[in-house]
Design goal:
Layout (H helix, E strand, L loop, with lengths): L1 H26 L5 H29 L3 E2 L2 E2 L4 E5 L15 E6 L3 E2 L4 E3 L4 E10 L6 E7 L2 E8 L7 E10 L4 E6 L13 E9 L4
Antiparallel strand pairs: 1-2, 3-4, 3-12, 5-6, 6-11, 7-10, 7-12, 8-9, 8-11
Helix pairs in contact: 1-2
């Protein structure tokens, strides 16, 4: 969009300075025509560069926005009320607090990136008294980070936040020690994420 605007501005300015050059040549026939055109074209290029700089600043201010709203608003937070032993697979964070963009599936416990971009993903777990639990934060099945609550007769909370690039269709979830129980009497067990910025990040 910005490139199209810049092209039209360039065409308009060149046309204006061409007309200006013709007028100068008519008013002052002793002035060399080529010298006149070179001078006016230099002025045009200076103004074009100035406008290009202003457009870049405007583009940076509106980065990631369209009509003052994010292009791909994505954010979710969910709690787990799963009182049975943890499954051999994704943990069910079944109680949604927020699911902007509907990219989190509470039935599967998986978040699917709707667009490529930079994301922040967080997981917190509290084991039931006496339950020692390991929880893995996974991307497409690959373990990226691990949490551990030791237990030993007291409640412990473990949490991690990962800031990472995801491609469209990548999935994130948390899986724990099968059969172990988490404490669901209070909202300690949370899975959440948000899109920070869309685009390609290495």
């Amino acid at each position: 969009m910005y490139r199209i605007v810049l092209v039209y501005l360039c065409i308009g300015l060149i046309h204006i300075y061409k007309v200006k050059c013709d007028l100068i040549k008519r008013e002052n026939k002793q002035l060399d025509g080529k010298q006149c055109c070179y001078r006016t074209l230099d002025d045009a290029m200076t103004e074009i560069e100035d406008l290009a700089g202003k457009l870049d600043k405007l583009r940076n201010k509106s980065y990631g926005c369209k009509g003052n709203k994010p292009e791909h608003p994505t954010a979710f937070t969910a709690l787990s009320t799963f009182s049975s032993g943890l499954p051999n697979g994704p943990i069910s964070f079944d109680k949604e607090i927020a699911n902007v963009g509907n990219s989190y599936n509470p039935s599967t416990g998986k978040f699917t990136a709707p667009v490529s971009g930079l994301y922040s993903i967080s997981v917190s777990i509290m084991g039931l008294h006496g339950n020692s639990i390991h929880v893995a934060i996974r991307k497409n099945g690959q373990e990226l980070a691990r949490l551990w609550t030791h237990g030993e007769g007291r409640g412990e909370v473990a949490s991690h936040t990962l800031n990472l690039p995801l491609k469209r269709g990548d999935q994130m979830w948390a899986s724990g020690s099968p059969g172990k129980k988490i404490y669901v009497g209070e909202p300690y067990n949370v899975f959440s994420g948000i899109l920070i910025a869309s685009g390609k990040f290495n």
